[in-house]
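As a warm-up, study this chain.
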Amino acid sequence: MSGGPDVVTLGEAMLRLSPPDHQRLEQSTSLDVNVGGAELSVAIGVARLGLRSAWVTKLPKTPLGRIIANHARAMEVDVSKIVWTDERRVGLYFLEFGAAPRPSSVIYDRKDSAASNLKPGDVDWKFLKGVKLFHISGITPALSETNRETTLHALKQAKRWGCRVSFDVNYRSKLWSPSEAELACTPIAKMADILIASDASSIWNVDKEPERMVKALKKKLGVPLVVTTKRADDGTFRSRISSIAVSDKRYESSRPYDVEVVDRLGTGDSFAAGFIYGYLTGGVQRGLDYGDAMAAFKVSTPGDSNYATKDEIDRLLASGPNLRIQR
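Now compare it with the structure written out below.
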C-alpha cells in the first residue's frame, strides 16, 4: 500500500463452515470454508471501491490464521497491523442455510480466540494519524472484557489523532444480553461521529420503525449522524433494501433495490462499507446510495465478503439492476 490507509477497522474474523446445498449440519459430509468477520468485511468493501483500508486484529501463527490473513491481503486490505501470536486459536462459526419454513442458523465456536485477547498495548495506535475514518462494531466489545478495554482505548486514540469514527451497533444476542450491550455500547456511541444503527432497538429503548429509531437515537445519544437500513422481506428469498439517515437534516435512499437473496451474511457490512466510501467521497446522500448498492450486490453472492467491483456498483447506481446475460 502506497501511503497510509484512508479507513481502518478493528475486530475479529473467523472461519465460516457451511454445509453445501442447504443440508443440515448433522447430515453433511463436507463443509464449505469462507472467511467471515464484520469489520474485515467492511475493510474489504471499502478497498473494493477504491479507498485504502487496513484491518487491526490478533491471529495465531497457524495455517488457519494464515487463511484469514491471506484472504484479507488478496482483497487488497493492509494486513501490516495484524498482531501475530503463538497462543490461542482462530474462532469458527458454523452456518446452516435454511429454506422456508426452516430458518438459517449459526453456531459459534470462538471462545478463547486470539482476537478476543487483543490488548490495548498490543498496537501502536499512532499510525491512526492521517487516517480519515476509524470503524468499529459492537461485536468486538462483546467478545471479552479485554476487547472492551481495547475498543475504548482505540476509540480514544482515533479521536486524539483526528479520525472520524463510525460505530455499527451489530448486536449479537448469542454474545451478550441487551443490558450488557447497552452498558458497553452507550459510551462508545456517544464518542462516534457516525452511528450505524443496525439492531439498535435491541439494546436501547427506542422505536423499531427505522425513521423514528434514528431520530430517537440521535436525540438520546447525541451522535451527529445516525444511519440505518430499511429491509423488507417477503418471507422467502426476496427482499427490498433501502436506508435512511438523520444529521441536521433527513436523508433517504434515492432508489430501493428489490433483490433475490443468495446469502444474507455480510449484507450490513457491505452497506457500511458503501456508506463509508460514499460519505468520505461525497457526503451523506452519496453514502446512502453506495451503501444500498453494495448491500444489494452482496446478497447475490455467497460468502461474507463482497466481490463487487467499483465499475459494477457505478453501473448499478446509474441504471439499476440488469438481469440479462452480459455477453
